[in-house]
Amino acid sequence: MMWARLLKRVFDIDIEQCACGGKLKLIAVIEEPDVIEKIFKHIGLDPQPPPITPARRRAQ
Fold it and tell me: Looking at the 3D structure of the chain, how many domains does it have?
C-alpha cells in the first residue's frame, strides 16, 4: 500500500486532492535525515521529534 493511501486511511488526509478540487502530483520526496534537519532549522522548527511519553491508562 502506498504511503499516500496509508495517510488517507489513518488520518483521513488525501494528499492527492487540492482544496480547490484539483488533483495534486508529487514531484519530489525528501528522505535524507540530514537534508530534512537543515530544512527544519532554516524555517525555524526544531528538527528533533518530541520525547515519547508512556501511554496513559483509561479511567474506569
Answer: 1
CA separation for the pair 52, 55 (Å, rounded):
9
Give the integer Cα–Cα distance in Å for 36 and 23. 26
55 domain residue, yes or no = no
| Tens-place pLDDT, residues 1-60 | 577 788 788 888 788 888 888 888 878 888 899 999 999 999 999 999 889 988 888 877
Domain-located, residue 52: no
Supply the range of the domain harboring residue 14.
Answer: 7-42
Distance of alpha carbon 41 from alpha carbon 13, whole angstroms: 26
CA dist 60 and 41 (Å) reads 43
For residue 35, tell me if it sits in a domain.
yes
